[in-house]
Write a structure and sequence with these properties.
globular, 118 residues, Thrombin, subunit H, two-stranded antiparallel ribbon, 2 helices
Length: 118
């Protein structure tokens, strides 16, 4: 068992990761139809929101409008998801829905670091 797997068991939180894909946009009503949703219940480690993580996120997003008190950073095992996480996916953590802002694939594609916002 990897160090990350052991830490997920010991210190991780349960999350639900959701990804919506496909479908077509109908500009009339402004809605999508024919989309499919993949949902996985997995474990994640919450990371401390440090100054360097905030700065890195601001550079990645090229957006100064991010409210840093309403962000979170998570690490998940890549093998826990049958798909690649993407920006605009949804994570439910502690009963709150968060939107993925950025995804960093680290350690030879064995884990993902996610930046989330409310």
């Amino acid at each position: 068992m990897s160090l990350l797997a052991r830490n997920l068991v010991k210190y991780g939180s349960d999350i639900t990761y959701k990804q919506v894909s496909g479908g077509t946009f109908d500009p009339g009503p402004g809605e999508y139809s024919g989309q499919s949703t993949a949902s996985e219940d997995i474990r994640a480690l919450q990371l401390i929101v440090t100054t360097s993580r905030r700065e890195s996120l601001a550079l990645t997003l090229k957006d100064d409008g991010v409210v840093f008190s309403e962000i979170a950073f998570l690490v998940i095992q890549a093998s826990d998801l049958p798909f690649v996480p993407l920006p605009d996916d949804t994570v439910t953590l502690d009963g709150r829905d968060w939107t993925v802002m950025a995804v960093n694939n680290t350690c030879n594609r064995t884990r993902y670091e996610l930046a989330l916002r409310i």
